[in-house]
Design brief:
By secondary structure, the protein is mainly α. It has 26 helices and two strands. The protein has a domain of 108 residues: Alpha Horseshoe (Serine Threonine Protein Phosphatase 5, Tetratricopeptide repeat), CATH 1.25.40. Strands 1-2 form a two-stranded antiparallel ribbon.
Length: 507
């Protein structure tokens, strides 16, 4: 009667909290009442654009037989996108029989299969999963990987690799096991930087490394250790290098503690291999000591400097940076006090505080790179140790606002260390500014405390860089201030420098 009166089988309810937030046709599909569904269907016809939700609803709530009826009704008229969404929703809800049936009846390209695989791990878990839920997660993974889905391709659909997502949380470890059991390569490259899932897992906390998803949950140490051991059972390599030569071992030295580093080291079978791993460098010549110093991992620094390992405290990179300078170069979330403590530890082990790189960089340039309140006492120490307050350095950058390559989504991955120093990587691309004193750098970055300390020790506020800029002129250039530090610091910095005798005018 309702149908004869003009009731619409494909109208959705107005209220989202309705028990069945779908069309009447979709309700019949969800319930598997195919007699009712076919009756409603007669009043709709084959205008498929209005019926896509029926196949998706059936894939989630119905049985394979109901899916078969729908596929038969439209033969080849179901859009590929609709069939892909149906597979996605079935995978998300662990409907093993429906996944198996859809795979047997429909063609899905690689992208669709990869997308469906990313839906299997639950997004949120407020309790420990039951045994039946754990089993239900592993079966769809086996079906989809047998059909050709690739876990390493998941970065197109997730903010991090699927293997890493599964490793990051204890309640997903059954998924991790299933992925590896069914052929996922633990050493597969998962991003354009050439990094593997183990590179991601080696990072202890998301906030310490750029481009780690903010929505990620915390990773308890026990779960992280269990994930490491699972990867190692499937021969994951701690020594596989990315395009920069960085290994998971390097990233662990930068962000983790000594226990994690030694766990990774214990995976190597011989003492000779373990000793070689501790001496490994990336393509820039950075060692584990550079990484651990940069990340202020004091326990690792002490271990690497111990007689057991014996890394040289003043070993240099290709650009002649020492671990001491790496310790002082700022990292966004590492407290400067901890960085300075690390630098002091290196000095206590006879690191040279007066080191100057081929580019002219000194410890004072590094301290001037970031606005902070904790530099003045250490600047006093460095000057008394003989670091030149007006030493000149080269800086291959003209501004913060360029479309920097490591910020682009198409080459995203794990980056570490001081982003300012990456300007040194390609001076031909970004141009080169030279003759920068530590005071120029402090003015450019808004480091008021450092600027005051440098002026106290006789820094020249009238010094001119290769572009004709005084420190005050750099302080007033808005392109350096938009995202770098509070705008009110600009006026304070200009006043500080001009009162000391500097000029705001370019030469």
């Amino acid at each position: 009667m309702l149908l004869k009166a003009g009731a619409g089988p494909v109208l959705e309810p107005d209220l989202l909290f309705e028990k069945y937030n779908t069309t009447p046709l979709g309700v019949a599909a969800r319930l598997g009442n195919m007699k009712l569904f076919l009756k409603l269907w007669q009043h709709v016809g084959f205008e498929i654009s209005q019926l896509d939700g029926c196949l998706i609803d059936t894939a989630v709530y119905g049985q394979p037989s109901a899916i078969g009826v729908l596929l038969d009704l439209c033969r080849e008229n179901w859009p590929m996108k609709t069939k892909g969404l149906a597979l996605n929703r079935a995978a998300e809800n662990w409907k093993v029989d429906n996944i198996r049936f859809l795979l047997s009846r429909c063609f899905f390209d690689e992208d669709m299969l990869d997308s469906a695989l990313t839906q299997v791990p639950p997004k949120v878990c407020v309790r420990d999963p039951t045994e039946s839920e754990l089993s239900a997660q592993s079966q769809p993974i086996k079906l989809l990987m047998t059909a050709g889905s690739d876990p390493s391709a998941s970065l197109r659909y997730l903010s991090r690799p699927l293997l890493t997502q599964a490793a990051a949380h204890k309640h997903l470890h059954e998924c991790l096991e299933a992925l590896l059991d069914n052929g996922a390569d633990p050493n597969a490259v998962v991003n354009p930087q050439g990094q593997t899932a183990l590179h991601y897992l080696a990072v202890k906390e998301q906030k310490e490394v750029q481009y780690w998803p903010k929505e990620a949950l915390a990773r308890p140490e026990e779960a992280r250790e269990a994930a490491f051991r699972t990867f190692f059972r499937f021969n994951a390599s701690i020594l596989q290098q990315d395009v920069f030569g960085n290994t998971p071992f390097h990233f662990a030295a930068f962000t983790s503690d000594l226990k994690a580093l030694q766990l990774m080291l214990s995976n190597l079978p011989t003492e000779l291999e373990r000793k070689a791993a501790l001496m490994l460098r990336n393509h820039q010549g950075e060692s584990l000591l550079h990484f651990s110093s940069s990340g202020a991992q004091i326990d690792i620094v002490e271990y690497l400097l111990s007689q057991e390992v014996g890394i040289s405290v003043d070993e240099v990179t290709l650009r002649t940076w020492t671990p001491f300078l790496s310790a002082l170069a700022p990292v966004s979330t590492t407290l400067r006090l901890v960085k300075i403590k690390t630098a002091q530890l290196l000095v206590d082990h006879d690191a040279n505080p007066t080191v100057i790189t081929h580019g002219g960089w000194t410890a004072l340039h590094c301290l001037a790179l970031k606005h902070d309140r904790n530099e003045d006492a250490f600047i006093d120490t460095l000057v008394s140790d003989g670091v030149l307050v007006d030493s000149r350095a080269r800086f291959a950058s003209d501004g913060f606002d360029l479309d920097l390559p490591w910020r682009r989504r198409d080459i995203r991955g794990i980056s570490y260390g001081c982003s300012e120093l990456r300007y040194l990587e390609d001076p031909k691309l970004w141009g080169r500014v030279s003759d920068l004193t530590p005071l120029h750098v402090a003015a450019r970055t808004g480091a008021l405390t450092a600027a005051r300390a440098l002026l106290k020790h006789g820094a020249d506020p009238t010094a001119i860089d290769s572009g004709g800029n005084s420190p005050a002129k750099l302080a007033g250039d808005s392109k350096y201030h938009r995202c770098a530090h509070p705008i009110e610091n600009r006026d304070k910095m200009i006043s500080l420098l001009t009162e000391a005798g500097g000029s705001y005018q370019a030469v």
